[in-house]
Write a structure and sequence with these properties.
Number of strands: 3
Shape: globular
Radius of gyration: 16 Å
Number of helices: 4
Strand content: 15-25%
Largest sheet: 3 strands, antiparallel
Distance between the termini: 33 Å
């Protein structure tokens, strides 16, 4: 494999890895459904229905992926979720 092919392959792999980041929201005993839904609508730009479904999944399953994308795009959103008192991380 020549250098150009290797660089192209490395870029493709890096792009694929970059898209595989997720914000995972975890269940807690503190926040109300309404607060979680409202926060997801504001921070993650969910529709109210999508936010409600995520809140239900978090409640019954313990966690839910609420957003996927590049790490740099997800980081400020994750920080906002944390500042709103939610339990979340980027994985």
């Amino acid at each position: 494999m020549n250098t150009i092919e290797q660089v192209q392959e490395d870029v493709l792999v890096e792009e694929q890895i970059g898209l595989n980041n997720e914000i995972v929201l975890y269940n807690d005993d503190v926040n109300t459904f309404d607060h979680v839904i409202e926060t997801l609508v504001i921070v993650c730009k969910h529709t109210p229905e999508q936010a409600k479904q995520c809140a239900i999944l978090v409640h019954y399953k313990g966690k839910c992926t609420v957003k996927t994308g590049h790490y740099d795009e997800l980081k400020p959103q994750c920080i906002q979720l944390l500042e709103a008192g939610l339990s979340a991380e980027i994985v």
